[in-house]
Amino acid sequence: MQEDQQYLVPDYYPAFRCKQGSCRTPCCEGWPISFSMQDYFRLLSIPCSDELRRLLDGAMHLCDHPTPDHYAQISPRFDGQCPMHQPDGLCRMHAELGEEMLSAVCRLYPRGIRTGSDREASCANSCEAVPEMLLSHSAPLSFRLFPVRHCLPDAPPRIHHFHTAGREQEIRLWLISHLQNRAYSLPRRMLLLGEALQAVDRALADRDEAQLDALLSNRETLHVPDAVDAGHAQLTAGLAAAEEMLSIMDARSRSIHDYGKAALAYFGEGEAAFARYEQAAAGFAALIPEWETWLEHLLVNHMFFVQFPFQDRPVSLMDEYLALCAVYAMLRFLLLGWTAEHPSREAAVDVCAAAFRLIDHTEFDRFAAPTLRRMGCDDWAHLRQLLCL
Ligand code: SF4
User: Which of 18, 20, 88, 107 for mutating ligand 1's site (highest number of atoms within 8 Å of CB)?
Assistant: First the structure.
């Protein structure tokens, strides 16, 4: 077990607690659990009860393409549950063998521990306890140092590097501050974030440290884009784009399938879609009057969790931004489409957690930008249509 180390965390992080048996969609459901080679051989021989041995031997198998870190898996049962998941919500392996024997993902989820040059920790929005916490959080998320102890080796070094003049974390928090600027509506803040990202991208590309400093200290005033016009033409076009995007995403994910199908069926297409959308938007605003604050938190938490826009992959900063716009549009579409016929805050949390199972735990971000590009939705005019949803 490593010593405590100071990590930058969002202010909700110290209070996070797993809901255990009261969780509606436990993370022990629907996902194969993978183990390292070391953990696999430890589990093969560890002394335990006959019952647990039977469960382990029955559920554990080698991965199709085993690697030292992902060597074997525990597959879900016929009902999608992990065979170790007990009716009380607790884990049989944890209860009998202790935390050390759990796979890395079971020990940490939904926590994301970043051990690069900036040590950071946060929780994934895919765990329903997180959007629930954020739903009752009013002030903009703040970030502070907090002692974190985890029992995992540091992550392997990054493969892809961005020139950030040594100010990566500062740039990321500065970008987040634009999404938290409540002087503007959330869709307009999303556009402002795009402006800020383009400005920082230019300064970094030009190696212009004076300009970068002027931006990060807010001495340089950014152009604030006009408010999005959610008029008939814009909204109808935005809806059609969201429906097309969702049909493409739906083919890649089980987690949003039912929600996506219901939302697409609810809105339908053409003229009626616009009227139904307006109705659903009014219903959602009545159900969650603080929806802009809640979505601000979800997007900010997602940006911090994935270290937006400097993720460890060869994707341009503006493509990471396109992916974030896709996250916004998909969230709004699913939330309004699902809560229109399931008008409860729990239902809103459930569809949100399901959406982030796709967003945070698949290559969503990598195919979102190319998908929007193929749809011809990667310019400001089309982004404004998507963001007026
Ligand atoms: S999804 Fe979150 S609250 Fe539910 S069981 Fe997993 S960690 Fe706990």
Answer: 18
| Contact yes or no for 269/240 (Cβ under 8 A) | yes
Task: Look at the block and give the residue holding tokens 């690069």.
Answer: 116
The Cα 296–Cα 14 span in angstroms is 20
Strand partners, 123: 111
CA-110 nearest atom, ligand 1: 7
Tell me how far apart the alpha carbons of residues 20 and 284 are, in angstroms, rounded to a whole number: 28
Q: Provide the whole-model pTM.
A: 0.93
Can you name the residues that pair with 117 across neighbouring β-strands? Answer: none
pLDDT tens digit sequence for 113-155: 998 889 999 999 999 999 999 999 999 999 999 998 766 667 7
How far is Cα 313 from Cα 300, in angstroms, rounded to an integer?
Answer: 20
206: amino acid identity, one letter: D
How many separate helices (H) and strands (E) can be counted in the chain? 16, 7
Contact 375, 158 (CB under 8 A): no
Give the type of residue at 5.
Q
Question: How far does the centroid of ligand 1 lie from the alpha carbon of residue 86, in Å?
Answer: 13
| Percent helix, percent strand, percent coil in the chain, to nearest 5 | 55, 10, 35
**Mutation pick for ligand 1 pocket among 99, 128, 132, 255 (CB with most ligand atoms within 8 Å):** 128
Q: Cα(242)–Cα(230) distance, rounded to whole angstroms? A: 14
Q: How far is the CA of 129 from the centre of ligand 1 (A)?
A: 7
Is the C-beta atom of 18 inside 6 A of ligand 1? yes
Residue 34, SS3 per DSSP = strand
Residues of the chain with pLDDT under 70: 1-3, 150-153, 251-253
370: left (phi over 0), alpha (psi -120 to 50) or beta: alpha
